[in-house]
């Protein structure tokens, strides 16, 4: 395969210099140019169009969101947002994600150079995921991470236990895991759900400080309530809880109630929050009372957890290849035998509203 060509658009000379050096050090990645604003970028990219664009938001002459909308209309290209880690920046970045950006890299207001150098893994995964969003889905590999760092399993956060066959009840829980392309997919699904929808717990791979803005945006668009999860939040009908960036979220049972636990811990499957952690906890806390859904995303986070969930008798469904931005996580779940079928994104809201058990789903 040829190198992934990357172009950087950021008004900070330091960011352009550091990102160029870091990305050029990654195997299979080549920075073909950098520009301080979108106007300069467009002129330079005409000669050699990149596979992936890293884009800042606040820039002179043309802001990142305006450029992104123009790009998606005239020349759709995978875009990774590189945004300052502030509440204001998070809200604006969510607008960019809604406009079609595929991933986020956060940058702080202080010690910027050190932060970027420490974020090599994050950068590698973001570039790899964005590049695959452009490739034919059948060509997406599930190989090693670009920087070669180790990958931990859910054992690092939640111990595996013998699966207990739980009594099936009418108190259902929907557990959703997603990554690249997931912001748009979740918006599509959640905005189509009524207030009577079963309680939902969601892991969307997203950096710290961005999940609150993402949840707030979805809450403004949906009939159901959407919020960033907090420790001991109850899982109730008409409510969707989104795992906070930088924390793991686990489903727990307290008497007759389901609640969430928010906890620190290492990266699992290279992510925090991790879908594997959520799905394993759902298997232990609710078993066959869960509807598990794995949607668009790069890599394999969630595949093993979904297999554990599936083994309890829970109905587990993957988003199909045709409707995924990146058919990575669903593909791996299917390969492990942890799913009962695949559905297009358009069919997932109805699945959640019906919340069928496995027998009913398989019967059709």
From TrEMBL:
* Response regulatory domain segment(s): 5-122
What is the protein's major site of localization?
cytoplasm
The subcellular location is: Cytoplasm
Positions carrying 4-aspartylphosphate are: 56
Name the SUPFAM superfamilies for this protein. Answer: CheY-like (SSF52172), Methylesterase CheB, C-terminal domain (SSF52738)
- EC class: hydrolase
Active site feature: 179, 205, 301
Q: Which domain of life is it from?
A: Bacteria
- Post-translation changes: Phosphorylated by CheA. Phosphorylation of the N-terminal regulatory domain activates the methylesterase activity.
- Ranges where the CheB-type methylesterase domain occurs: 167-359
> Pfam families this protein is in?
CheB_methylest, Response_reg
Please give the CDD domains that the UniProt record associates with this protein: CheB_Rec, REC_CheB-like
Q: What are the EC numbers?
A: 3.1.1.61, 3.5.1.44
Free-text note on domains in this protein's UniProt record: Contains a C-terminal catalytic domain, and an N-terminal region which modulates catalytic activity.
Q: Which family does it belong to?
A: Belongs to the CheB family.
Q: What does this protein do?
A: Involved in chemotaxis. Part of a chemotaxis signal transduction system that modulates chemotaxis in response to various stimuli. Catalyzes the demethylation of specific methylglutamate residues introduced into the chemoreceptors (methyl-accepting chemotaxis proteins or MCP) by CheR. Also mediates the irreversible deamidation of specific glutamine residues to glutamic acid.
The entry's protein name is Protein-glutamate methylesterase/protein-glutamine glutaminase
Tell me the organism.
Methylomonas defluvii
């Amino acid at each position: 395969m040829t190198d992934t060509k990357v172009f950087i658009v950021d008004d900070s000379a330091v960011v352009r210099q550091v990102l160029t050096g870091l990305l050029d050090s990654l195997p299979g990645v080549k920075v073909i140019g950098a520009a301080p604003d979108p106007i300069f970028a467009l002129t330079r990219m005409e000669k050699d169009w990149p596979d992936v664009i890293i884009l800042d938001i606040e820039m002179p002459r043309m802001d990142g969101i305006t450029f992104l909308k123009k790009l998606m209309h005239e020349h759709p290209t995978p875009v990774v947002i590189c945004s300052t880690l502030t509440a204001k920046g998070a809200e604006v970045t969510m607008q960019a994600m809604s406009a079609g950006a595929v991933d986020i890299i956060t940058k702080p207001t202080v010690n910027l150079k050190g932060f970027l150098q420490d974020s090599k893994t994050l950068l590698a995964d973001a570039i790899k995921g964005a590049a695959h969003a452009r490739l034919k889905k059948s060509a997406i590999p599930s190989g090693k991470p670009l920087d070669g760092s180790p990958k931990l399993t859910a054992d690092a956060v939640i111990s595996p236990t013998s699966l207990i066959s739980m009594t099936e009840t009418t108190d259902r829980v929907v557990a959703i895991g997603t990554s690249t392309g997931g912001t748009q997919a979740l918006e599509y699904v959640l905005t189509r759900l009524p207030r009577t929808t079963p309680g939902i717990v969601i892991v969307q791979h997203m950096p710290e400080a961005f999940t609150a803005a993402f949840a707030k945006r979805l809450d403004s668009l949906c009939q159901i309530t959407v919020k960033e999860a907090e420790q001991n939040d109850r899982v109730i009908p008409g409510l969707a809880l989104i795992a906070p960036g930088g924390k793991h979220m686990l489903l727990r049972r307290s008497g007759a109630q389901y609640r969430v636990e928010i906890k620190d811990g290492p990266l699992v499957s290279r992510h925090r929050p991790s879908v594997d952690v959520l799905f394993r906890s759902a298997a232990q806390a609710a078993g066959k009372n869960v509807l598990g859904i794995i949607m668009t995303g790069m890599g394999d986070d969630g595949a093993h957890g979904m297999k554990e969930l599936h083994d309890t008798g829970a109905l587990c469904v993957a988003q199909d290849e045709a409707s995924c931005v990146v058919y990575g996580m669903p593909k791996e779940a299917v390969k492990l035998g942890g799913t009962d079928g695949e559905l297009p994104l358009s069919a997932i809201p109805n699945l959640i509203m019906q919340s069928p058990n496995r027998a009913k789903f398989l019967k059709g």
